[in-house]
Amino acid sequence: MTAFELSAAPIDSASLRARLARPGAGALTVFEGWVRNEHRGRAVRRLEYEVFPEMAQTEGQAIVEEAAVRFPGCAVLCVHRSGVAEVGELAVWIGAAAGHRAAAFAACRSVIEELKRRLPVWKKEHFVEGGSEWVDCTQEHNPAVRRDEYHARQTRLPEFGPEAQVRLAAANVLVVGAGGLGCAAADALVAAGVGRLTVIDPGLVEVSNLPRQSLYSAEDVGLAKAATAEARLRARNPFVAIEGVVGALQESNARARIAGRTLVLDCTDQFAVRFLLHDVGRELGVPLVQAAVIGWEGTVNTFGLAPEGGCLHCLWPGRSVGELAAVGDCQGGAVFGPAVNALGLVQATEAIRLIAGLSVASATQTLFVSWLDYTTLAVSRSAQPGCPVCGGGACVPDGGVLRPADRAGLFLATAELEGCGGEWQVLNLEGAPLSAEFARHAVVDAAGMPWAELRAVASRRPTLVVCAHGVRSAAVARELRAEGLAAVWALAPENFP
Ligand SMILES: [Zn+2]
User: What local confidence, expressed as pLDDT, does residue 323 receive?
Assistant: First the structure.
């Protein structure tokens, strides 16, 4: 049972309720919209609904079917009045029956919100004093919430001003992933006043998501993330057109989803999606702001703004997506909640700066932040010569020092290190000791070491930089190379200690 109906006669709620009865339903949520005797200070006598039946039927049916897909297991019935309705009569009746109340509440709410936005039904109010007026149902949010007042504190910033606010309102942003990063970033972007925002995620809210994923409550467990996020974001800022898409971003739909956007935020935790977003965005000329978090630390990179900053393939040279995914995907990994939220905010900040026309630090640098020791680093990125995707262009310094054969890339496996003699040193960025395979090389404890000292140590002899997850070691090795040290590598992802 998922149906939308138009009725010229008064709506009988008891009979509709009976149609939704089913043994598996533990909850029925009913919304009734009533014709009331007042609107914005004027006494109302009756309402009149003008409907083009075919159009309204098609759109109404689409809305209830979408709700049934978004909230699996829900039965949804909706009846909307047409013609003249007197004060006290029902204008619209929505019932959602589900196994559990959370899905029933959410489905019911989602249907009324979508009806208000999309249903081609025009409402005319007839007043007691005489006369009548059409009502714009799509603009019926609280009139006390004014757009200029909403953004007043932000537009007062001298770097921002009303011009940047206009640019934000014209922006169309895609947020891929509605986990911790996506919740924080989408919330900040919606609050900042982007014009349109789509959030896409195939997942359901899980209990272990709740500490980090600020758009969800305990009662949302089991509901689709994208649909739940959409409702929450819409309530946050009524001036933003929000769309929640329950589904995965994949090769078959990436172009259609990304085309026409101002920018894309990658808030996923999978290398395969990360490269897909990067490559399609690059092809379509849509910039990408990426964030990744592991444990207590994370990074933010923006691609597609500055060619000299290189591309994602420059950042992970010579590694296939499969190889990276095998070691680097952080689904279900241990993570510090505030680090995720904070990185999402950094990501949103870069997106807002990009849209507003301010400088974007992560366009040519990897922004790295650790919440374990409050380290922050902005490490220069550069296009790698011979990059198969962006073609490189920059020059990697080569001081003629010892380097293993055929290893111009940034990463080095421990096996390759073994074949390079004993003159190497291993720069250990972790506080913890390394495993035995590093024992025959000089290991330098570089945890918390100031940059100048780190640079001095690394300039002595060929250096392999090692950390727990490969994020900081790659960033540090890249920065050391950028500062002219050619014989520096980061431990290859498959060898993380
Ligand atoms: Zn490249």
Answer: 67
Residues 411-495, CATH architecture: 3-Layer(aba) Sandwich (3.40)
> Which residues of the chain, if any, have pLDDT below 50?
393-407
Q: How far is the CA of 386 from the centre of ligand 1 (A)?
A: 8
170/197 Cα distance (integer angstroms): 11
pLDDT of residue 400: 28
Query: For position 112, what pLDDT does the model report?
Result: 93
pLDDT digits (tens, 9 = 90+) for 412-445: 777 666 655 557 788 888 878 887 777 777 888 8
How close is the Cα of 393 to the center of ligand 1, in Å? 9
A 10 A CB-CB count for 457 gives 15
> What string of DSSP letters covers 8-65?
SSPP-HHHHHHHT--TT-SEEEEEEEE--SEETTEEEEEEEEEE-HHHHHHHHHHHHH
Cα 317 to averaged position of ligand 1 atoms, centre (Å): 8
Per-residue pLDDT, 406: 36
Instruction: List Cβ<8 Å contacts ≥24 apart for 232-239.
Output: 233/186, 233/187, 233/190, 233/197, 233/199, 234/113, 236/187, 236/190, 236/191, 237/150, 237/190, 237/191, 237/193, 238/141, 238/142, 238/145, 239/147, 239/150, 239/169, 239/193
H helix or E strand, kind and range, residue 236: helix 225-236
* Catalytic residue set: 330
Tell me how far apart the alpha carbons of residues 189 and 496 are, in angstroms, rounded to a whole number.
35
User: Which CATH number, 3.40.50.720, 3.10.20.310, 1.10.10.10, 1.10.260.40, labels domain 147-380?
Assistant: 3.40.50.720
> DSSP letter at 337?
H
Q: Where does 2-139 sit in CATH, by number?
A: 3.90.1170.40
pLDDT reported for residue 166 = 92
Q: Ligand 1 center to residue 45 CA distance, Å?
A: 67
